[in-house]
Amino acid sequence: MDWEKLDLNPKIINALRKANVNSAEQILSLPASDLQRLLQLSDPEVQLVHTAVASLYRPLPPVTALQLTRGEFPSLEPGHRLSFACPVLDGLLCGGLPLQGITELAGESAAGKTQFGLQLSLSVQYPREHGGLGAGAVYICTEDPFPIKRLRQLITQQSRLRPDVPPALIRSLRFSDNIYIEHTADLEALQTCVTKRVRTLLERGLVRLVVVDSVAALFRSEFQADEAIERARHLLAFSSTLHRLSHTYSAPVFCINQVSDVIDGPNPGRCDYGLVDCKVLPALGIIWANQVMVRLMLRRQEGCLKSEEQTSATRKLEVVFAPHLPREFCLCGVWEEGIRGVTQEKVIKQSQAGTTLLKD
Predict the structure, then answer these.
(1) pLDDT in tens, 303-358
(2) Are both 123 and 253 inside the same structural domain?
């Protein structure tokens, strides 16, 4: 290494040469006390060496989380994300699903969780300029049959859901041909599916999205209450495979999760992540929660939303935790063409028009 390029005085440079230190890795791998004895320099001089060498690997100053939140460093923001095909939902999640890591959507039965999985399976097929990834999706069903009739309905209504996309582009996409459906009846079949068939689809570039509906079904049914350690071992192996696939192929993993009832009374071992007023919590406990990067909660609310001639039960989509998102929520509805979020301004107008909405 050419020490002359560093902003160091000749005494320090001579000490580096005398000690036969030839690389920056040697400097950064040694504690300050060891480096001080090796170079025979004072403590302030050793700090100068560490600072000068570190600047080669970190040319930019450190950035705080507050600065990122304020948008002061847009160049450090993540790039492309998988769109939900709705500006309101994308706004809640700062653009959509991150391309690496596990995003979980938890909620009670009939909350509309599967609708999100289907919509993402179609959105991923659009080109990047329209929020997609230009590839298909693999949809893993662990409990219920795949809702093929609903998928066909969503496909026929894509032009209504995506008015921003040229109709010719929508007609050119063969949506149903690019969704690979897998049914797994037990954990062994699930692990084989993700380690072999899903990996093959990702390697060939046929898919860029993995949907698991639902992640809790098999882990709940195959283990008894006294088999928590064995269940945790299988759960960690499964999540490790998902993480490896997601990071290797930049493919988002979307896991739909069930919920468990909250038992009244103190429970020191339970972590509710701030959902203190919720009567249900995402299933599989802290072991699974630690594997999730983004946790979303979907709940039905009283009242309804109106759009044109359609009416939908009100849903509340909430960010429970995420490394890059604040604790926010938005209201949404399930329409014939898919899931769409509702802005607060529209909620106020509908409320004034007489539509009953649950107060937050």
Answers:
(1) 888 877 788 999 999 999 999 889 999 999 999 999 999 886 666 555 555 554 43
(2) yes
Work out whether the CA dihedral 192, 196, 197, 201 comes out positive or negative. positive
Q: What is the Cα–Cα distance from 335 to 340, expressed in whole angstroms?
A: 7
Q: What angle do CA 214, 233, 191 make, to 5 degrees?
A: 50
Which pair of structure tokens corresponds to residue 298? 């979907």
Total residue count of the chain as it appears in this document? 360
H-helix or E-strand spanning residue 355: none
What amino acid occupies position 52?
A: A
Which residue shows structure tokens 């909430």?
Answer: 318
Band (pLDDT 50/70/90 cuts) for residue 18 is confident
Q: Angle CA(276)–CA(284)–CA(99) in degrees, nearest 5?
A: 90
Q: Is residue 137 part of a domain?
A: yes
CATH number of the domain at 103, please: 3.40.50.300
Local structure of 294: helix, strand or coil: strand
- DSSP secondary structure string, 216-276? HHHHHHS--TT-HHHHHHHHHHHHHHHHHHHHHHT--EEEEE-EEEPPSS--TT---TT-T
Q: How far apart are CA 276 and CA 260, in angstroms?
A: 14
Structure tokens at 284: 């599989």
Are 7 and 137 members of one domain? no
Residue 50: pLDDT band (50, 70, 90) is confident
Is residue 39 predicted with pLDDT exceeding 60?
A: yes
> From CA 184, how far away is CA 225, in angstroms rounded?
22
| Shared domain check, 109 and 239 | yes
Give the domain extent around 150: 84-352
Instruction: Give the H or E element holding residue 191.
Output: helix 187-192
What is the helix (H) or strand (E) element at residue 110, kind and residue range? none
Question: Torsion over CA of 286, 290, 293 and 297, rounded to 10 degrees?
Answer: 0
Q: Are strands 310-321 and 294-307 parallel, antiparallel or unpaired?
A: antiparallel
Q: Which has the closest alpha carbon to 81: 93, 68, 99?
A: 99
Tell me: the pLDDT tens digits for 101-113? 999 999 999 899 9
